[in-house]
Amino acid sequence: MKKVWRRTAVVYLLVAAFLAGLAVIAVQFFTNGRIWATQRANLHLFSGGTVIAAGAVYDRDGAVLAQTIDGERVFNNSARIRKSTLHVVGDPQGYISTGIHSTYRTELTGYSFVNGLYSVAAGGKGNDLHLTISAELCATAYDALGSSKGAVAVYNYKTGEILCSVSTPTYDVRNKPEDIDSDTTGKYDGIYLDRVCNGLYVPGSVFKIVTCASAIDNIPDIFSQTFTCTGKKVLETGTVICSDVHGSQSFEQAFANSCNCAFAEIALQLGEHTLSQSVSQLGLLSELKVGKTSAGKCSFNVSGATPAELAWAGVGQHTTMVTPMHMLVLAGAIANAGTSAKPYLVGSVTSGETNVSTGKTSYLDPVMTSQTALSLSGLMRNNVTSKYGDSSFKGLEMCGKTGTAEIENGAPHAWFVGFSQKEDCPLAIAVVIENGGLASENALPVAQKVMKAAYNTIK
Ligand SMILES: [Zn+2]
Fold first, then answer.
1. Residue 339 near residue 366, CB atoms below 8 Å
2. Cα 267 to chain center, whole Å?
3. Disulfide-capable partner of 405 in 202, 220, 248, 396 (CB 3.0 to 4.6 Å)?
4. What's the gap in Å between 231 CA and the centre of ligand 1?
5. Cα 233 to middle of ligand 1, angstroms
């Protein structure tokens, strides 16, 4: 009897081990199935490391950005569109790891846990992706950037749809330059990087938006203070230089003049703790999810800073770095009473006539009160009407801030961050031109051209 029990126990143990093994395989299959099925060795999907069998990618108007024809991945017919949408759409080899071809590989190939790659095997293609971007608008932004390196992004702050996202330098996937990896002149620097989400830049004066928000919330008499600018502010630990001698100014005038002396004074009134807290509250120190990719955290560190360093940080210099996407979404939050819609790129996923999923509007956490947002909007509106020229943003009721960010080597980066208050144009924009020089001469005209085209896209 004892022997029988022992044998039964052994059988139970074997069964238990078998079931445990099965469970491990099931879990592995569930968690890794997509990766196994969509890896480059799978000849159903890839040929010579290039994605071939996958659904099509369309822009918001139905223009084909990429599709598979006779086992070959084919991109849009226009070189302008291929270049301007490269970083959003991605390349067939996956060098641009944040592009749709890499991040939405599962959807494009139609992989599902139950059916595996059934839709590719059965129909020769996966799901189609319908993006929120306008290819023509991206091409307009690309033209406006010219040969400069930089980024332009536009999104709808009420719905979250990204209409334009362009990063330069770029290249044509159809005629990829052969010297791209061997070049030493720097013309292709960071060419695989999507600068909209992953370019970290010194913000310069666009950061005054942040210092402004902090001042509105934390300095009760800020709107009745007067700031005097003599062209420089001498502190014991260093001197903050201004671009001009602005004389006596109100808070509103100091923002429109982009006066470094006034904002140095404001940063010192706020102090390192309060200013840091505001930067964090405004979402700049958090990763920002954009579909299946994300914009990395910005950097702001004034802990233990000298008064001069804190003053420089308050005008967007010192060690401060931001991404264009963070500045875009901050502009959107100001425009939308303190709460921005979450930016997204994929409007819908379809399989033949069937809708697989639809991109929905959702909201980020509020970053400021509606009252602060309203005050900031007023200040940014005043910048446009009193300084940049309202007529250049014809009828758009534009609000904005320029920035000329000093960097260690080379000409400053030129910035513009802003939004339209027009009811039927709920769009925000961020422009950065690397070594672009004066923002008013270079970033502002790009923003004007792109906003005009963006409004025409949605109206
Ligand atoms: Zn000044």
1. yes
2. 27
3. 202
4. 5
5. 9
The H or E element spanning position 420 is strand 413-420
Q: Which residues in 234-266 are b (16+ Cβ under 10 Å) and which e? A: ebeeeebebeeebeebebbbbbbbbbbbbbbbb
For the chain, the C-alpha Rg in angstroms (whole number) is 26
Q: Where are the beta strands (DSSP E) in 270-372?
A: 288-290, 293-295, 346-351, 354-358
Region of residue 406 (phi > 0: left; psi between -120 and 50: alpha; otherwise: beta): beta
Determine contact, residues 144/132, Cβ cutoff 8 Å: no
Q: Tell how strand 57-58 and strand 128-131 pair up.
A: parallel
Look up residue 382 and give its amino acid. N
Q: Does residue 297 surpass a pLDDT of 60?
A: yes
pLDDT in tens, 85-143: 999 999 988 899 999 999 998 888 876 555 554 455 445 568 999 999 999 999 999 99
pLDDT tens-digit map of 23-57: 655 555 455 555 545 555 454 465 556 666 789 99
The amino acid sitting at 343 is P
CA of 241 to the centre of ligand 1 (A): 8
Distance 259 CA to ligand 1 centre (A): 4
* 3-state percent helix, strand, coil for the chain, nearest multiple of 5: 40, 20, 35
**How far is C-alpha 22 from the chain's CA centre?**
43
The full set of domain ranges for the chain reads: 195-348+360-458
Q: What's at 353, amino acid-wise?
A: E
Q: What pTM value is reported for the model?
A: 0.89
Amino acid 121: pLDDT: 45
- Residue with the larger pLDDT of the pair 83 and 113: 83
Distance 106 CA to ligand 1 centre (A): 53
Q: Which fold has domain 195-348+360-458?
A: Beta-lactamase (3.40.710)
CA of 302 to the centre of ligand 1 (A): 22
> Is the Cβ–Cβ distance between 400 and 447 less than 8 Å?
yes
Rounded to the nearest angstrom, the distance between the alpha carbon of 247 and the centre of ligand 1 is: 7
Phi, psi of 194 (to 5 degrees): -85, 105
207 Cα–ligand 1 center, Å: 16
Beta-strand pair 64-69/72-75: antiparallel
What does the alpha-carbon distance between residue 260 and residue 243 come to, in Å, rounded to a whole number?
8
Distance from C-alpha of 314 to C-alpha of 412, rounded to nearest angstrom: 17
- For residue 264, give the amino acid letter: A
User: Which three-class secondary structure state does DSSP give residue 155?
Assistant: strand
Task: Tell me how far the alpha carbon of residue 325 lies from the centroid of ligand 1, in angstroms.
Answer: 28
Q: In the structure encoding, which two tokens stand for residue 45, read together?
A: 């999907």
> Residue 180: enclosing H or E segment and its boundaries?
none
